[in-house]
Amino acid sequence: MPRKPQQQRAKATVASIVEAAMIVLATQGPKGVTTRRIADVAGIGVGSLYEYFENREQVYDAIFERLVQDAVKTIQPLIPELVRLSIREAVRTLLLKLRELLMENDGRYLMCVRYAPHLAQRNPLDPLRKVLTELLMQYVMRHPQYMQVPNLATMGYIHIHGGTFTVIRHLADPTPPMTFEELADGLADMVAYCADGALRDRGVAAR
């Protein structure tokens, strides 16, 4: 049974395996991913890989988890800036920042996002949803008029989960029907129309 890394050296080995797997997946596609090829790129023996991962599918899980962790690390420091913007600009800025992350290293993350959700056995999206919920809460604290939006918690849940699914679905499509920028504009408009429209219905100005 694979062991959980405890020592710093073991953690570094696992990190190098995941990084190597991302390189292989991005450059070779799923058909080119084998544990031996991952081990070769990581510069270790295949036996060392099996010390930490039982099979290729567990490596895919680790890739997806890494993608989510890095997305959270991108969003967290942006929150103070995002809460000062209008809702539309906040959503659009957030999505475009995530796009920048995905395009790093010649689009390696983007290619992995296209494959990993379909290959992974687990769905580690909870940390991403948690940080987006934190962003929503801090935004409402900064703009308390939005507390008057009916069913705010329900609408927040729908936008966070629906938006996450929509973005992943778009990125996983090699020939999407619109550009990412158009998708970002559409999602930003949708959230703004719902929130600001609810305030207008109640005679409250969105500031």
UniProtKB/TrEMBL annotation:
Residue runs in coiled coils: none
Gene Ontology molecular function terms on file: DNA-binding transcription factor activity; transcription cis-regulatory region binding
Keyword list, A-Z: DNA-binding, Transcription, Transcription regulation
Residue ranges of the annotated DNA-binding region, renumbered to this chain: 34-53
HTH tetR-type domain mapped to chain residues: 11-71
Statement: the UniProt record of this protein carries the keyword Transcription: yes
Spans through the membrane: none
Gene3D superfamilies: Tetracycline Repressor, domain 2
Name recorded for this polypeptide: TetR/AcrR family transcriptional regulator
Organism: Solimonas fluminis
Lineage per the UniProt record: Bacteria, Pseudomonadati, Pseudomonadota, Gammaproteobacteria, Nevskiales
